Amino acid sequence: xxxxxxxxxxxxxxxxxxxxxxxxxxxxxxxxxxxxxxxxxxxxxxxxxxxxxxxxxxxxxxxxxxxxxxxxxxxxxxxxxxxxxxxxxxxxxxxxxxxxxxxxxxxxxxxxxxxxxxxxxxxxxxxxxxxxxxxxxxxxxxxxxxxxxxxxxxxxxxxxxxxxxxxxxxxxxxxxxxxxxxxxxxxxxxxxxxxxxxxx
Length: 200
Description:
Blueprint: H1 2-12, H2 15-33, E1 38-40, H3 52-60, E2 64-70, E3 76-80, E4 87-88, E5 97-98, E6 113-117, E7 120-122, E8 127-128, H4 134-138, E9 147-151, E10 157-158, E11 174-176, E12 181-183, H5 188-197
C-alpha cells in the first residue's frame, strides 16, 4: 500500500526540485562516505533521488564507484562507473547501466561504503524497496565493516510506525537525505562512532 503512495509523491515532485535535491544529496553523501576509496552506489530512475551529481562528485575525487548491472532474472552483477556517457539503458523500465566488463555479485564485498535506494526507512532501519528484493540479496554480501546508507527524501523517513518486515529484509544502519546524513540509533556504526569519540 505504501509503495504506490510514495511513487506518486515522487512523480509529483517538479523536475527542478528533483535537480536541486540531487545536488543536496550529493553534498551529504560525499560527506557521509568520508575518505572511502571504493563505493557501491546506483543509477537513479527519473523520479528517484538523483544520484547523478553524486556519481560525478565521487569520480572527480578519484573514488572508484561500482554500479548495479541487472542480469537475467534476479542475477546480481556490477560494473565500474567511468562517466555519464558510458551509461546506457539496456531494457525498457530499467535504469542506465555501465557498459564495461561485468563483475560478479560478490564484487560488492570490496566496497567500503554501499549506498542503496529505498522508498522509505523507519526508525530501526527497515528499508522499503521497490519490491523485487534485489538489494535484500545484495546486502548480505557486503563486508561487516562497510557502511551501508539508504537514500530517501526527508518525508520518507517513517518515525511514528514501523514498516512491515519479511524474513529476507535487510535493515540499513544509516540514512542520507537532502538535508542531512545520520546513523540510526543503536546501529553498530553509531556504537562504533561513539566509542571513537569517548576518551580512553
